[in-house]
Amino acid sequence: MGLFSKARATPLDGVDVVLADLDGVVYAGPGALPHAVESLNRAAQTRRIGYITNNASRTDASVASHLTELGLSVAPHEVVTSPQAAMRLLASIVPAPATLLIVGGDGLVVEAEKAGYRVTRSADDAPDAVVQGFSPDIAWTDLAEAAFALKLPEDEGGIPWIATNTDWTIPRERGVAPGNGTLVSAVHTAIGRLATVAGKPEMPIFEEAIARFGAKRSLFIGDRLDTDILGAARVGIDSALVLTGIDRPKHVLAAPEGSRPTYVLSDLRELHEPYPVAQRKNGAVTVNGASVRVVGGDVEILAEGPRQIDLVRAGATAIWESGTPVFVLNVPEKLFEDPFHRP
Which of 56, 93, 95, 203 could form a disulfide with 164 if both were Cys (CB 3.0 to 4.6 A apart)? Predict the structure, then answer.
């Protein structure tokens, strides 16, 4: 799905369920991102809102409480977490009441116990599987226990290893910090095995959300191309990339096919604004006065237009439709400018 593939009044037009990522979309650390709460509350007046998070450190109830404190009205069942997706996946591999070695926080432990599993933190307890999710309190000793439990390859009789997600980074109030993917990679480096992933961009977490909310036409809002947008594309729903989290304009321009959002937004206020349709003429792509074309190995800005976001939209469309990878093109620095809010 590419930019401007449908001429809608706004990105919300015709959508019955909005599914929103949390880190980098609603908040960064404990605080709400600018315009997120009021924009989502406005959307909730006419459609259902569900929240999907790869962050496994907290329970659905604690996430709902946090969102409510920020000014949203959210019940626990309106939060879909990667630990929930992990338990759904595990049920077909290692059914309860098996013993799980948990590397992660309360969000993972609570979901495992709710699903009927026994929980341990030690490889000495002969666990039937290892489940790893993000927690800011994970220590070297936790990663070591996972490595000890996973030392035997699965094809040689070793136990399964499920990762809630493999996001390399996580937005925090002070900046960008290492995410669960970094910690999973540490275990992988030690044992030479790959984890099975339950969260975004894999399909189980999206399928759980679509089924839970009875969605007929969804819009997924995320801040990462490699998890949020790719995952939405895999399940065939429209997506909006908001530039308040991890991925920046340079990433949008370089987005590979399959990870290209339907919409690119400066912030969530633009959910409610008419979304511009790209105009094509004489090889140029024009969006609200911003005009870009690709000629040979050069990306040319014919008009900057009044807003940087429209220049990014025009530039991305022109580059994507050229079929040429951005890294072999000469791209003007203006297209990489990043005045958008980020943590």
Answer: 56
**What predicted TM-score, i.e. pTM, was given to this entire model?**
0.88
Q: Rounded to whole angstroms, how far apart are CA atoms 312 and 337? A: 9
- The answer to whether the beta carbons of residues 100 and 129 sit under 8 Å apart is yes
Q: Quick check: bond before 95 cis, omega within 30?
A: no
Q: Return residue ranges of the chain for CATH 3.40.50.1000.
A: 17-81+201-272, 83-197
Q: Is 247 a catalytic residue?
A: no
Catalytic residue among 13, 16, 23, 167: 23
Distance CA 135, CA 137 (A): 5
Count Cα neighbours of 162 within 13 Å in the Cβ-side half-sphere: 28
| pLDDT value of position 190 | 97
| CATH class of the domain at 83-197 | alpha beta
For the chain, what percent of residues have pLDDT higher than 70? 97
For residue 259, the 8-state DSSP code is: S
> The domain 17-81+201-272 belongs to what CATH superfamily?
HAD superfamily/HAD-like (3.40.50.1000)
- Please name the residues in contact with 217: beta carbons below 8 A apart, sequence gap of 6 or more: 14, 15, 16, 17, 237
- Catalytic residue list contains 124: no
Please identify which of the residues 21, 226, 267, 310 carries the catalytic annotation.
Answer: 21
The pLDDT, as a whole number, for residue 254 is 97
Which neighbouring-strand residues pair with 196? 162
Task: Kindly report, residue by residue over 21-39, the tens digit of the pLDDT.
Answer: 999 999 998 999 999 999 9
Which candidate, 306, 301, 333, 334, places its Cα nearest to that of 318?
301
